[in-house]
Structure formats: C-alpha cells, structure tokens
Amino acid sequence: FKTPIATISLATDAITSPKISGSPDKIKRFADIIRQENKRMNSQVEKVLQMALIDKREYKLKMAKVNLHDVINHAVQNSRLQVEKKEGKVSIDLNATNPFVFGDMTHISNIINNLLENANKYSPEKPEISVHTRNVKQGVEVIIEDKGIGMNKDALKHIFDKFYRVHTGNRHDVKGFGLGLSYVKALMDAHRGKIDVKSDLGKGSRFILTFPYNTKMNNE
Q1: CATH of 64-212, one of 3.30.565.10, 3.40.1160.10, 3.40.449.10, 3.60.40.10
Q2: What pLDDT is stored for residue 12 in this prediction?
Q3: Cα(140)–Cα(44) distance, rounded to whole angstroms?
Q4: Is 25's pLDDT higher than 60?
Q5: Predicted confidence band at 162 (pLDDT cuts at 50, 70, 90)?
Q6: What gap in Å lies between CA 166 and CA 150, rounded to an integer?
Q7: Using the 8-state DSSP alphabet, how is residue 219 labeled?
Q8: Cα–Cα distance for residue pair 171/176, rounded to 1 Å
Q9: Within 10 A of 170 (CB to CB), how many other CB atoms are there?
Q10: Residue 6 — very low, low, confident or very high, per pLDDT cuts 50/70/90?
C-alpha cells in the first residue's frame, strides 16, 4: 500500500501549497490523482481480503451455468478504454461452439479481467492483446495473449506466488500489489480448472485457461 499512500500524501501536500491553491485546474488535477489512487488502494485491500478468505478456504463458489463468451465480451469492453489510451487494441476470436461451463460468474469475470489488465500493464507501447476460445476434450479453453515484455524462465516459476511481481527493468509505471495472478491460480484450482503460461522475454505472454465442463450440463 506504500505507493498509493505516498502518492496521495504528495498530492495532498501539493493542493495545500500556496502555488497550487490559487489554480483551479491544478487543484482538479491533484484531486483526480487522489481519487484514482484511493480507488487503486481500495482494489488492493479487496484483493488482500479475497486472498485471506481463499487461504483459509472460507469462501463459497456460487455455482451456475456461465456463458464464457458473454463474460469475455463484457471484460474486453471494460478493458478497451485503458488499452486504447495507449493506442493499443484488443481482438477477440470466439471459436468455442459450446461456451457454457459451470462456475461462479463473479470469480470467472475477475479471472478474465485480471489477465486482460496484466496484458495491458506489461505491454510498453501500443498493446496488442487477443482473446481466443475453443472447445477441447476437458472443457472450454480461453487463451489470452499479448506482445508485451514477456518473462524469463525464472519469473515463470514464481508468477503465481503471492506478492511476486515480474521485473520490469527501467519501467516504473507498472503498478500493482502482486496478488492478481495468485488469485487467478487459486480460483482456477477452486473451479478444478487449469492454467498454463507460455512466455518469451521481449516477445510477450500467453495464458491458457481450461474451464472444465459440468457433467450434468453435458447430459442436457
């Protein structure tokens, strides 16, 4: 939490400065920074609480029939604004003829949103992100791919560890708390799903999610 708190503190000091207090435009700018950092800190607190519940297994999945294509379309729509701010694009290719799985809609949405957020975050300029689906024997496969900074073999060993963050070299604008991917892994396990990662340093990453079918649904 140190980074957002430090940023809020600096912005608050700036607003009370005589040089800034007489400029409505500058006050608005710093107020916006405080608002954004407060929102980010709330998000980080929520992730910590979610992980605490997951670690203690004090959570329940609200299982229901979920259309993965609907979830993906909604998540992509939400992420496009941030990606387009960097002059990037998100493409989708939904080939699964049966996109229905049995799972918790909220957590599945969070999984997809987390991976799209990461793909954008670790793409230095003009992100190129793609989302594909297909049916496989075990269920529905969702592939989220980017052409960002990628990871080396050592990073790949630790990306699902809590509080681990991929080294970004000289980039200091990558913000986060290192909880997103550990949350994704924990929830894929809770859904009895599978997550694989393929990545090349300097070329990008590919996250492959496999959501299993529900036997009852397959017999419908």
Answers
A1: 3.30.565.10
A2: 87
A3: 30
A4: yes
A5: low
A6: 9
A7: T
A8: 13
A9: 4
A10: confident
Residues 6+ apart with CB under 8 A from 35: none
Q: Which residue has the tokens 């997809």?
A: 112
Q: Listing from the earlier edge strand, what are the strands of the sheet with 139-146?
A: 89-94, 128-135, 139-146, 204-212, 194-200
Domain ranges of the chain: 1-56, 64-212
Question: Shortest CA distance to 142 belongs to which of 172, 112, 174, 169?
Answer: 112
Note the residue count of the chain. Answer: 220
Cα–Cα–Cα angle for 53, 58, 63, rounded to 5 degrees: 105
Q: Coil, strand or helix: which one is 104? A: strand
Yes or no: say if 146 and 129 are a contact pair by the CB < 8 Å rule: yes
Give me the amino acid identity at 116. L
Using only C-alpha atoms, the chain has a radius of gyration, in whole angstroms, of 19
